[in-house]
Amino acid sequence: MASATTTEKPGEPPLREVGLCVRGLTKNFGGVYAVRGVNLECEVGQIVGLIGPNGAGKSTLMNIISGTMAPSAGTVYLDGKALMPSSAVECAESGIARTFQNIRLFKRLSVRENIKVAAITRARVSKTVVDEAGIDELIHFMGLDAMADTAAGTLSYGHQRRVEIARALALKPRILLLDEPAAGMNEQETLTLIGSIRTIRDSYGCGVVVIDHDLHFIMELSQRLYVMHLGQLLVEGEPHSVRHDPRVIEIYLGKKQQ
Ligand SMILES: Nc1ncnc2c1ncn2[C@@H]1O[C@H](COP(=O)(O)OP(=O)(O)OP(=O)(O)O)[C@@H](O)[C@H]1O
Ligand SMILES: [Mg+2]
């Protein structure tokens, strides 16, 4: 991927030298602004939550950060350098990996083969051999041993989401983006997922940006929370203060009747 060190723009928060910085990101589809002027940050070793009602622009933002969609304006920086991906593969090669709201596994390939596809990409970038032991480790870490040779499309949604995370991790990313990873999971699976994402942060050394509608899950997990509404950033801060912010309560529960 092409990248360039870029100077800060007037009026925007200073760039971080380490981790993800999003500055002035905008995406319009004709007259509809899905994302408008969004700034966001995620340090390596941090879990950041992104919430907002349906249609707020969360997935569009993640699509742009991961190179699956070009922005109309704005820049994504990783470790202080502007990323200018021409494809999602290039973006992954530069250190940003993701999962999808609508699971996108190779359904007929086994769990192991799905993860291996990403490990092969990683090996090509780092000019090394495929890390077979690393694949086994990821299968074990995500609790997929018993289904390693099963076709991914036959698994439950919960397990498919865990395969997607394992596949993203095989790219050895600096930043991991998770779009509704707990969707379709039961309470126990969600609890296990919280533990797994914390271990990813601590042991795999990445920053993690998580979108979810399950507020309990996201509050429990995130160290910092961003709230989007109608394409714009409404509030950001520590989960506890965001939860009690009247603007956030209003978009979720509606304005109190006087
Ligand atoms: N390819 C597209 N063409 C036209 N409009 C789009 C496109 N993708 C997204 N949008 C619009 O952009 C807005 C934001 O959509 P987006 O999917 O990013 O929201 P979201 O916050 O992820 O919502 P959800 O919580 O339902 O997943 C919506 O109004 C959506 O209809
Ligand atoms: Mg979405």
Largest sheet: 6 strands, mixed
Radius of gyration: 18 Å
Structural class: alpha/beta
The helix-strand sequence is EEEEHEEHEHHHEHEHEEHH
Strand content: 25-35%
State the oligomer. single chain
Which strand order spans the largest sheet, edge to edge or round the barrel? 7-8-9-4-10-11
Q: How far do the termini sit from each other?
A: 54 Å
Shape: globular
Roughly what is the average pLDDT, rounded to an integer?
91
Which ligands accompany this protein? adenosine-5'-triphosphate, magnesium ion
Work out the helix count: 9
- Total number of β-strand segments? 11
Give an overview in words.
There is one protein chain. This protein is α/β, with parallel strands linked by helices and 258 residues long. Helices cover 35% and strands 25% of the residues. It is built from 9 helices and 11 strands. The chain has a 6-stranded mixed sheet, sandwiched between helices. The protein has a 5-stranded antiparallel sheet with strand order 1-6-5-2-3, covered by helices on one side. Strand 5 and strand 6 form a beta hairpin. 42% of the residues are buried. The N terminus is likely disordered. It binds adenosine-5'-triphosphate and magnesium ion. Magnesium ion binds next to helix 1.
